[in-house]
């Protein structure tokens, strides 16, 4: 069982708890709810720092886990860095595009590859045969004001 943190995306009356708290409104903690942890392993321990590898189900709060570990040790603990390595069928190693490959062609190719991993009803629609480009990309230019300088135009894709 895990109690969701007050600063979370959970909602009360259609509004995020975190938004209500930022406004100074009183927010009651949500009740503890069942969560699933498939594996939890200590990867590195160099006091006072440690690195965990956690495989868990949806709705699990890693920061809450770390805080709970600190409390169990009669101390405190917080997260310095958090990396999501898998979400559904997508993994960081296989599906994240390295920064040196942030080109239109590489991005389009990655999107095509990733769409094949999704259920058919969620997959990206393929371009129609009459569209002549290998990768279809729609761009428009928006002018911010009357002066037509290079700095005054935003390219959106």
TrEMBL record:
The keyword Oxidoreductase does not apply. InterPro entries: PsdUridine_synth_cat_dom_sf, PsdUridine_synth_N, tRNA_psdUridine_synth_TruB, TruB_C. GO terms for molecular function: RNA binding; tRNA pseudouridine(55) synthase activity. GO terms for biological process: mRNA pseudouridine synthesis; tRNA modification. Coiled coil: none annotated. Belongs to the pseudouridine synthase TruB family. This is tRNA pseudouridine(55) synthase.
